[in-house]
Amino acid sequence: MPLREFGELLKQEFGKSIPAKVEKLNSPYPTPAKYSITFDEPGNDFKYIILREDIAQGQKVESFRIEAEAEEGNRYPFYQGTVIGNHKICRPWEPFTGQNPLTKNIAYRTKRLIVHVTSARDEVMMKEIKVY
């Protein structure tokens, strides 16, 4: 793929993030961490969730999962993975293809995503979380 076509593909896929409020959820313990991503408008048209760990102090996340919360309050598994590091691109239709009612071909709409760090070496500090 020529470099120009690759650049156009990146602009198409990651051109503008979906507006959302990202906040770390309070917990009496430093690990595991939880982050809430609340959308300005509920929807189901996102393709990617970008997670960036602040690795200036070292990579801490061992594993994580992402849950989607629908408008009516039900929660569904959306993604699970290992290590985040500097930059992790999560495609929410994997590994739950065909099992998730919050994908864009069904009427359910997501109002919030919750990122659960399920295993970490120390206190986790996220540098950035964006949804495209």
Fold blueprint:
Layout: H1 3-14, E1 20-24, E2 34-43, E3 49-53, E4 61-70, E5 75-82, E6 88-90, E7 110-120, E8 126-131
Antiparallel strand pairs: 1-2, 2-7, 3-6, 3-8, 4-5, 4-7
What does this structure look like?
By secondary structure, the protein is mainly beta. Helix content is 9%, strand content 44%. The chain is built from 1 helix and 8 strands, in the order H-E-E-E-E-E-E-E-E. It has one helix at 3-14, and strands at residues 20-24, 34-43, 49-53, 61-70, 75-82, 88-90, 110-120, 126-131. The strands form 2 sheets. Strands 1-2-7-4-5 form a 5-stranded antiparallel sheet, with no helix packed on it. The model has no long low-confidence stretch (mean pLDDT 86).
Span from first to last CA? Answer: 23 Å
Counted by DSSP, the helix tally is 1
What is the C-alpha radius of gyration, as a whole number of Å? 15 Å
Largest sheet: 5 strands, antiparallel
- Indicate the structural class: mainly beta
Oligomer: single chain
> What portion of residues belong to β-strands?
35-45%
Count all strands and give the number.
8
| Proportion of residues in helical segments | under 10%
Strand order within the widest beta sheet: 1-2-7-4-5
- Spatial shape: globular
- The run of helices and strands is HEEEEEEEE
- Overall average pLDDT: 86
